[in-house]
Each structure stands twice: as C-alpha cells, then as structure tokens.
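Re: weekly structure request thread

Next one in the queue (233 aa):
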Amino acid sequence: MSTTNCGRLSLASNWQERVNLPAYLAREVANIAGVSPQTVSGWFYGYPHSEGERGIPVFREGKRRRVALSYLQLVEVAYVATCRKQGISLKRIKRARAYLAQAFKVEHPFADLQMLTAGPHILAEMGVDELVVADRFGQIGWKSFMLERIAEFEFDQESSLALRWFPRGRRVPVLVDPRINFGRPILARSGVATWAVADALRSGEDPDDIKLDFGVDDEEIIAAEAFEKLKAA
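Done, posted below.
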C-alpha cells in the first residue's frame, strides 16, 4: 500500500509559523472539536438575526467567510465548546476570553500555558466565576469540566503553547499536533493519519491487512474508525 507512511512525518522545523496559518476548514474544526459546522460558523461570523444582520461573534480576529482556521483557533474552539456544554453563555465566554487575552498579552489565551495557573485567579478577580472554583480555605482553581479539557493538551514550555492535543481524551490514541502531518489527526503510537486507516476500511480492506500495511493495532483501527465517523461493517 503506497500510503503506509503517509502520517509518519517528522516534527516540522517551521512549526512556529504553522500554528497561525489557515489550515482547517470549518467542517474539520467541527469534527475535531466535537461541534457542528454551523456552530463554528456562528462563533466566528456571528449568528444571523431575523432582520438579516449577524450578531457579534466570539472570535474577532478578522476572520472572513470561507477562510480556513489555524491550529490555535481550533484549540480555542474546543474550549468554547466545553463552556457551552456547561450552559455558559457566549457573552460570558467572550468576556472571560477578553480578560485573559488582555492579562496575558496574547491573541489566543485558551491555547496559552499561562492559562493553567494564572487563569483562574484572573477570572475570579474579574468576577467570571462560571469557570473557576474556590474552596473554603481560599484556594482557587478550574472547575472540573475545564480540568478535563485542559488534561487533553500537552503544553510546550518554551513557546507556552498547547502543541499536542488528544481531542477524544488521553485514553483514545488520536493526536493533533501542528508539527506533524500538517496538523491533521494521527494515531498517537504509530503516527499514521486517521484518514488513511479510515479510507482503507471504507474501501473494504481486511483489518488484518491494514494492521500489517500501516503498522497499527486493533485499538488504533477502532479509534481511527470512530474518529472519522465510519460505521462499522
């Protein structure tokens, strides 16, 4: 099979540029972050009103329609999705994000290492308490749902960015890393692109042959199939 090593790419030397380059279509962002493409569109362009106008979006970095999103924007979509699943309003999310961006002097605060330790204290001081928790001894930290999302990421100490992401949790061997395979989802152990395994399954190849051709195991085949939303035969 000619695509055997399609996902096994070494770390890119110019990854610092790639994290901000348009790389993901709205539907790709939606699949990785676990939301709908319409939701992604609304967060960047604003939701349409009955009068034909659009509301103020969550992200206001000059995003234009039909322009792909960057890796750092993808990471932030994941955090907004986490907050929305907890019933936090877009208005409150925008406020929290604006506070963090101003405090850290960064464009993508949800993708920055400073958020882990300083974030809860800044939000508590600003009165954005939906994301933080304080115990009776005065300790301040993230609420459990935010900790679960944060645990999916590995932050690079030098750049302070979230550069390794397990979008379905650490127990699922699917990894997104902007330095590998141009940021497309791969299987963490073998380094094979999830789409390659999914295409092989879709074409009717025997799973045992796929394991030999790609060097993957049963768990990775199942993970790739589920991630790419294929239905089991």
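The first strand starts at residue 132 and ends at 134. The chain has eleven helices and six strands.
Next request, please.
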